[in-house]
Design goal:
binds zinc ion; eight-stranded mixed beta sheet; binds (3S)-3,7-diaminoheptanoic acid; 41% helix; 28 helices; five-stranded mixed beta sheet; 32 strands; alpha+beta
Length: 880
C-alpha cells in the first residue's frame, strides 16, 4: 500500500480546525491516466493566526502550491505521509492554490475520482476527497464549491457536479467545459463530479412552496428504459419528507447517476447523488419485488440526507450515526408508509437480531458513537446505521409522535448549516420534551446488546400483575462494566381467550410503555381482572434480547391473537426456535429429527388465514434464520443448525403439502406484473408456499412432481420475482436440474450485469454439496471480476457470509478460500476486502477445531508485509 499507516484516533482528542475554507474553486481537466486538478481555497484562521495549514492529500502527484497567487518554494511546504503542510501564512485571509495530477483509470479502490464503465465518477465519503486534491478533509470544514469540469466532447458529452449549472462552453480543442455552483456550504465528503457518455430521463417535482425542481436520472444508454421506478420513488420521497417532516428541497435540480462499480449502495452528494445501479435500475423481467422495495428505500434514504446529513452535517466521523441512524429511521418510516408498517418493522427487527446483535457480540463491537477508530470506513456498520436508527426510534416512542416532531423542528432550526454532534441532536429532543436525557445517552457511548430477564407474577386477590425486569449488558472492548440503559418497554396483556385487556396506555388503552432505567425494576400493573398472558416488548420497542419463560400455550395464544403484529410474529418465531433447538440437540446426538405437531398446527392456521395481510403471513411462515438460531447456542454448530432447519422445512412441506398447494394455486394471478405492496405481498406468500413444497429432505429426496412445479414457474413466470424464487428453490433441491436452469438463465441474461449478480448469488448460496468448488471456478469465469464490488458481494460474500453449512465445512477449506480472496482484494479495493473479512471475525463462536482453522487464516493475513489500514484493523481487533 502506498498510503501511510494510520494510528488509532480518538473522539476525546477532537480539536476544531485551525483554518476554515469559506470557498473552493475547482478546475478538473479530465484525462483517464492524468487528470489535472487545480483547487483554490479561500482560507481564514479559525482563532489563532500564524499556524501551519495542514491539508490532507493521498494517492496524488503534487505539481504546484501557491499562496495568494504566488508559487511557493519548497522550503515553505512539505508533502509527506499524506499531509501537505504549508508554513509562513499571513495573519489575514488568504488563498491557497494546489495543482495535482491523479490517475482515475488506475483507481481500483473506487474512492476519489475513478472510472466506471468508462465514465468518470467520484466517491468522497468518508475521506476520498483527499485523493482528488489537497484539502482539510474533515466534515467540520464547510465550503461553498464552484467546480469547472473540462472533458473531451466525444468521450464526455455530459459534465456534472454539485449544485446549479452556471456556465458551459466549447474550448475549441475538442474539449468543452461546464461550471457548477453549489450555494450551500458543505463538507468536502459531499463533493461529486460525474462525466461521460450518459443519457438521462427527466421529470419534475413541485415543492409545497410551488418551486419547480428539475429531476434527472443519468444512466448508460442501454439502461434508459429501467429508470421509471426510481423516478417515481424520488417523487414520493420528496412529497413524504414535506408531509411528515416539513422538509422541502432547496436546489433547482436533483440529479441521480447510476454506476455499476460502487463500494456501497449510494451516496448523498449535494444535488448529485451517485448510486450503485442496483438501487436505480428495474424492469419487471430483471428486478424482483425485493429490488423494487430496495430501490424505493435507498432513493428515499439518500434524498432524506439532504436535510439530515447535508444541511446539518457531522462535526467529526465519530458522529456518523447523527446522520446515518437518523436517516435510516426516516427511510424506515417512509417504507413503512409505502408497504406495510408491521412487515417493515419485522424486517428491521430481524436485521438487528440476526446481524447487529452478532456484531455487538464480536471483536468489532462498538457503540453507536465509537470512541476511536483506525479506518473510518470500517465503521459504516449495522451498529451505526441500524442500531442508531433504533436509538432514534426509542426517542420517538418515549416522546410520542408530536413531541418527537417538535424535537426535529428544533434540531433543524438550531443547526441548519452547521456541523454538529449526537449530543446536539439529543439536546433538541430534550428541549421539545422538557426533560433531560442524560441516562438515555448511554445508548451512544456503551456497546453491546442488553439482555432483559423478565418474570411475571399475578396476584388474583390484589388483581395485580407484577413484572420484574432486570437488565444486563455483556462486556465489550470499550468497557467491562456497563451502566444501566434507559429504555421504553411497550407491554400489552391478553386474557385466556386471547382478548386484549385494557391497561391504560397513553396512545392506545391496550399498550402501556414502561420505562426501564434501573439494573432491576419492579412494575406493578393493577386492576387486572384475570391471570394474563404478557405481550412483552411490543413492536420491538428497544434493541435488546429478552429472556422470559413463557409456556408454549402462552406463545401460541400470542401467535394467534396478539393485536401487536410484531409480537404475533415473534411468538411464532420463539415457538419455532424452541422446537428447532430441541431437535438440534437430538441431531447432535445422532437421533432422528422430529417435527412438533404444534408447529404444524400453527403453520396450518396461517395457511388458512384469509384475513391477515399476505405479506405478513409470508413473514410468519418463515422459520427463524440460521443466524438467529446460532446466536442462541453457546457454541454454534453451523452444520447442525442448517440440517435441522432444512429437515424441518422438508417435513413441513410434506405435512402441509395439500394446504401449501391449495394456497399456492389460490394466490396465482394472470394479471401482468405490477410492483405494488399488495401484489408483492401476494407473490411473497405464494413463493413462501413454493419454498416449502420444494424443500428436499436431508437425503436429498423430493417428489418429482413438485420439482416440476418449480421448473414450470421458472419457465413460465413473466417477472423476475417469480422466476428467481422458483430457480432458487430448484437450485437448492436438485443439482442436475438446477445446473440446467442456471445455464439457461446465464445464456438469457449474461449481458445484464445486475442479473448476472443474481446468477452468481444462486451459485454461491447453493446448499448442496460441492458449492465451494463451483464458487472457486466462478472466480475465473468471464462473468466475474474482482474489480466490481457487486460481483464480489454476490459470489464471495454470499458464500462466506450466508452459506453457513458450506462455508464452515469442517476441513476449513472455506476459510482458506476467504483468506485468499481477501488478500487478493486488498491489493485492489481495501474497503471491500475488509468487509469480506466479517465472517472470520466471529471465530470465538465456533468449536475448538474451527477456531484453530479460522485463526490460522487471520494470522496468515495479518502476517503479510503490506496490508491496508482497513484490513489490518479488522484482523488485529479480531485476534486481540
Ligand atoms: N453515506 C453513504 C455511505 C458512505 C460510505 C463510505 N465508506 C451512503 C449512505 O449511507 O447513505
Ligand atoms: Zn446514509
Amino acid at each position: 500500500m502506498v498510503t501511510a499507516i494510520k494510528k488509532e484516533i480518538f473522539l476525546k482528542d477532537y480539536t476544531p480546525p485551525a483554518y476554515l475554507v469559506d470557498r473552493i474553486d475547482l478546475r478538473v481537466e479530465l484525462d483517464p491516466q492524468a487528470t489535472r486538478v487545480r483547487a483554490t481555497l479561500s482560507c481564514r484562521a479559525n482563532g489563532q493566526t500564524g499556524q501551519p495549514l495542514v491539508l490532507n492529500g493521498k494517492r496524488l502527484e503534487l505539481v504546484r502550491v501557491e499562496v495568494d497567487e504566488t508559487e511557493l518554494t519548497s522550503d515553505r511546504y512539505s508533502f509527506a505521509d499524506d499531509l501537505l503542510i504549508i508554513l509562513g501564512l499571513p495573519g489575514r485571509p488568504f488563498t491557497v492554490t494546489v495543482e495535482t495530477v491523479i490517475n482515475p483509470a488506475g483507481n481500483t479502490a473506487l474512492e476519489g475520482l475513478y472510472l466506471s464503465s468508462g465514465n468518470y465518477c467520484t466517491q468522497c465519503e468518508a475521506e476520498g476527497f483527499r485523493a482528488i486534491t489537497c484539502f482539510p478533509d474533515r466534515p467540520d470544514v464547510m465550503s461553498v464549491f464552484t467546480t469547472t469540469v473540462v472533458g473531451d466532447k466525444t468521450a464526455c458529452p455530459v459534465l456534472l457536479a454539485n449544485g446549479n449549472l452556471v456556465d458551459s462552453g466549447d474550448l475549441g480543442d475538442g474539449r468543452h467545459y461546464a461550471t457548477w455552483h453549489d450555494p450551500f456550504p458543505k463538507p468536502c465528503y459531499l463533493f461529486a463530479l460525474v462525466a461521460g457518455n450518459l443519457v438521462h430521463i427527466r421529470d419534475s417535482f413541485t415543492t409545497r412552496s410551488s418551486r419547480i425542481v428539475d429531476l434527472r436520472i443519468y444512466v448508460e444508454e442501454r439502461n434508459q428504459d429501467k429508470c421509471g421506478h426510481a423516478m417515481r420513488a424520488l417523487q414520493k420521497a420528496m412529497r413524504w419528507d414535506e408531509e411528515r417532516f416539513g422538509r422541502e428541497y432547496d436546489l433547482d435540480t436533483f440529479m441521480i447517476v447510476a454506476v455499476d462499480d460502487f463500494n456501497m449502495g449510494a451516496m448523498e452528494n449535494k444535488g448529485l447523488n451517485v448510486f450503485n445501479s442496483k438501487y436505480v435500475l428495474a424492469l419487471p423481467e430483471t428486478a424482483t419485488d425485493v429490488d423494487y422495495e430496495g430501490i424505493e428505500g435507498v432513493i428515499a434514504h439518500e434524498y432524506f440526507h439532504n436535510w439530515t446529513g447535508n444541511r446539518i452535517t457531522c462535526r467529526d466521523w465519530f458522529q456518523l450515526s447523527l446522520k446515518e441512524g437518523l436517516t435510516v429511521f426516516r427511510d424506515q418510516e417512509f417504507t413503512a408508509d409505502m408497504i406495510s408498517r408491521p412487515v417493515k418493522r419485522i424486517q428491521d427487527a430481524n436485521i438487528i437480531r440476526s446481524f447487529q446483535f452478532r456484531e455487538d457480540a464480536g471483536p468489532m463491537a462498538h457503540p453507536v458513537r465509537p470512541p476511536s477508530f483506525v479506518e473510518i470506513n470500517n465503521f459504516y456498520t449495522l451498529t451505526v446505521y441500524n442500531k442508531g436508527a433504533e436509538v432514534i426510534r426509542m426517542l420517538y416512542t418515549l416522546l410520542g409522535p408530536q413531541t418527537f416532531r417538535r424535537g426535529m423542528d428544533i434540531y433543524f432550526e438550531r443547526h441548519d448549516g452547521q456541523a454538529v454532534t449526537c449530543d446536539d441532536f439529543v439536546a433538541a429532543m430534550e428541549a421539545a420534551w422538557g426533560r433531560e436525557l442524560d441516562q438515555f445517552k448511554r445508548w451512544y457511548s456503551q456497546a453491546g446488546t442488553p439482555e432483559l430477564t423478565v418474570e411475571a407474577t399475578y396476584d388474583p386477590a390484589a388483581r395485580h400483575l407484577v413484572l420484574e425486569v432486570a437488565q444486563n449488558c455483556p462486556p465489550t472492548r470499550e468497557a467491562a462494566e456497563k451502566e444501566p440503559f434507559y429504555m421504553p418497554l411497550a407491554v400489552g396483556l391478553l386474557d385466556e381467550t386471547g382478548r386484549s385487556l385494557p391497561i391504560g396506555g397513553a396512545v392506545d388503552s391496550a399498550t402501556r410503555t414502561l420505562i426501564l432505567s434501573e439494573r432491576s425494576q419492579r412494575f406493578v400493573l393493577d386492576e387486572i381482572p384475570t391471570k394474563p398472558t404478557v405481550s412483552f416488548l411490543r413492536n420491538f420497542s428497544a434493541p435488546v434480547k429478552v429472556v422470559f419463560a413463557q409456556s408454549d400455550e402462552e406463545l401460541s395464544r400470542l401467535m394467534a391473537h396478539d393485536t401487536d403484529p410484531f409480537n404475533r410474529w415473534d411468538a411464532g418465531q420463539q415457538l419455532g426456535l424452541r422446537y428447532l433447538l430441541a431437535q438440534i440437540d437430538r441431531f447432535q446426538n445422532g437421533d432422528a429429527i422430529e417435527l412438533d405437531q404444534r408447529l404444524v398446527h400453527g403453520l396450518r392456521n396461517l395457511l388458512a388465514d384469509d384475513d391477515s395481510d399476505p405479506a405478513f403471513l409470508a413473514m410468519a411462515l418463515l422459520l427463524p434464520t440460521e443466524n438467529w438460531i446460532g446466536q442462541q447456542m453457546t457454541t454454534i454448530d453451523p452444520v447442525a443448525v442448517f440440517s435441522v432447519r432444512q429437515q424441518f422445512r422438508a417435513l413441513i412441506g410434506r405435512a402441509l403439502c395439500a394446504e401449501l398447494q391449495t394456497r399456492y394455486h389460490r394466490l396465482s394471478s394472470d394479471a401482468p406484473y405490477r410492483y405494488t405492496a399488495a401484489d408483492a405481498g401476494r407473490r411473497a406468500l405464494r413463493n413462501g408456499c413454493l419454498a416449502y413444497l420444494l424443500a428436499p429432505d436431508l437425503s436429498g429426496l423430493l417428489d418429482p412432481e413438485l420439482l416440476a412445479l418449480g421448473v414450470q414457474q421458472y419457465r413460465t413466470g413473466d417477472n423476475m420475482t417469480d422466476r428467481l424464487a422458483a430457480l432458487t428453490y430448484v437450485v437448492n433441491a436438485d443439482l442436475d436440474t438446477g445446473t440446467e436452469l442456471l445455464t439457461d438463465f446465464h445464456a438469457q441474461w449474461r449481458h445484464d450485469p445486475l442479473v448476472v449478480d443474481k446468477w452468481l448469488i444462486l451459485h454461491a448460496g447453493c446448499t448442496l454439496p460441492g458449492t465451494l468448488d463451483r464458487v472457486r471456478g466462478l472466480t475465473v469465469h468471464p462473468s466475474f471480476t474482482h474489480k466490481n464490488p457487486n460481483k464480489v458481494r454476490s459470489l464471495i460474500a454470499t458464500f462466506c457470509a450466508t452459506n453457513h453449512s458450506q462455508f464452515h465445512a469442517a476441513d476449513g477449506a472455506g476459510y482458506v478460500f476467504l483468506a485468499d480472496q481477501v488478500i487478493l482484494l486488498d491489493t485492489l479495493n481495501p474497503q471491500i476486502a475488509a468487509r469480506m473479512l466479517a465472517p472470520l471475525t466471529q471465530w470465538r463462536r465456533y468449536d475448538a477445531d474451527r477456531q484453530v482453522l479460522i485463526r490460522e487464516q487471520l494470522t496468515r493475513i495479518g502476517g503479510l508485509p503490506s496490508l491496508s489500514n482497513d484490513v489490518r484493523e479488522v484482523v488485529e481487533k479480531s485476534l486481540a
